[in-house]
Design goal:
With about 400 residues, this protein is α/β, with parallel strands linked by helices. Helix content is about 45%, strand content about 15%. The protein is globular.
């Protein structure tokens, strides 16, 4: 039996595709995989179930976040700590449940994907004389809106400062996160830069979303469609585009109020017939659906330091599916769009006119879109893919455990 590696997340499995990629690579390299995760939203739990069913060799440890006695105690521990400002290990309402579950699993290495489970990983490693690592998928002290260098979440900053330097290694989802964490924690070794890349999508195209293939297909996806994702820029920008020149496809769980607010931004009646909202789908189905579109949009505004520095999952997903990239010009996104040069659109968040003008220039010359799509796929094959990005990571794990 191979050595056991426990992967820890504070949320749903399907909300952490990065962890699933790690589990797949570890399993293919002969490691036993245990996963601790938390379920709290039924519609997302249904997507989690696909992952569990597809991976029978992995050991799953789900915490069902409902109002049972165990979870009520977890909430009480957190509220007491917050009330009396105790310097302890319960930094959110789910902390005790996550820690208790992790402490029940004996592993050789624990990899934490959130500050709350960083504590759990450190405690479990101490209990079982094991090692732990920290995956910095976000710049966690700066996730909340308007959080920047001068006003971080101090509690998270303190937790990371306490535990991060005892890790066997750290990884980050953006090279720009590595810079910040070196600055904050005086790390001896630079974190392994490990972007949220994917395997190349070589699956054949199946058209299920699109209605008219003569129209250029604009595409955006996330688990949830919200008004804080920059979508307003796109819905305003399309007003100046020629009628029946495009279809707009939005994928994710969307409340009726949000949908109506977005559609109310569209002043051209003919455009409304070409806007389509789709439900969330499993990861495997998402891979198929992504492939059929032309332009993939990553519109997140830089509402915090984390947002400014992040490289969104969807950009890298669009790349491996051969979509042309349209993205806001945050520092993180520009790491990708600068690589693509003239084969991507980079625009200023909130500037719908700039976005519209850029889209119009491509609609008027569809060959440019096809060339840009080919460039995206080429860039993914040469640089932004799972095999290349994760090579150093698995090598490091082998060094740590052997």
């Amino acid at each position: 039996m191979g050595k056991n590696i426990a992967l820890l997340t504070a949320g749903h499995l399907s909300s952490c595709p990065r962890l699933i990629k790690e589990a797949s690579i570890l399993s293919s390299n002969g490691y036993e995989v245990s996963i601790v995760y938390l379920e709290s939203i039924p519609r997302i739990s249904a997507l989690d179930k696909h992952i569990v069913n597809d991976n029978p060799s992995w050991e799953f440890h789900a915490i069902q976040w409902v109002n049972d006695i165990e979870n009520i105690f977890s909430k009480i521990y957190y509220r007491v700590s917050a009330l009396f400002k105790l310097d302890n290990i319960y930094i959110q309402s789910t902390s005790k449940s996550l820690i208790d579950k992790t402490l029940s699993i004996k592993a050789d290495l624990y990899i934490a994907h959130h500050p709350s489970v960083l504590i759990a990983a450190a405690l479990a490693a101490s209990k079982y004389n094991a090692k732990y690592a920290y995956d910095i998928e976000d710049a966690f002290p700066y996730v909340e809106p308007n959080s920047y260098i001068d006003n971080p979440n101090q509690q998270i900053l303190d937790v990371e400062g306490k535990y991060i330097n005892d890790t066997a290694f750290t990884t980050t989802a953006s090279p720009l996160y590595s810079d910040i964490y070196i600055q904050n924690n005086k790390l001896i070794d630079r974190p392994i830069d490990l972007m949220n890349v994917f395997d190349i999508n070589y699956k054949p195209i199946e058209y299920k979303d699109r209605i008219d293939l003569k129209k250029i297909s604009f595409y955006w996806y996330s688990q949830t469609v919200g008004l804080n994702r920059g979508l307003q820029d796109l819905f305003i920008a399309i007003n100046t585009l020629p009628e029946n020149s495009f279809e707009l496809h939005i994928r994710g769980t969307c409340e009726l109020e949000v949908k109506n607010k977005l559609l109310n931004l569209v002043s051209v009646q003919a455009h409304l017939n070409n806007i389509h909202f789709h439900d969330s789908v499993s990861m495997d189905e998402l891979e198929l659906r992504n492939k059929e579109h032309d332009l993939g949009f990553a519109l997140e505004p830089s509402s915090s330091l984390n947002r400014e520095l992040c490289i969104s999952n969807k950009i890298l997903d669009y790349l491996r599916s051969g979509l042309m990239i349209v993205a806001t010009n945050s520092k993180g996104h520009k790491l990708i769009t600068d690589d693509l040069g003239d084969y991507a659109i980079s625009y200023t968040s909130g500037n719908a006119d700039e976005l519209s003008n850029a889209l119009l220039s491509y609609i008027q010359n569809r060959d440019r879109i096809e060339i840009a799509k080919a460039k995206s796929l080429k860039m993914a094959i040469e640089k932004y893919n799972l095999k290349i990005q994760f090579e150093r990571w698995i090598k490091k794990i082998n060094e740590v455990l052997n």
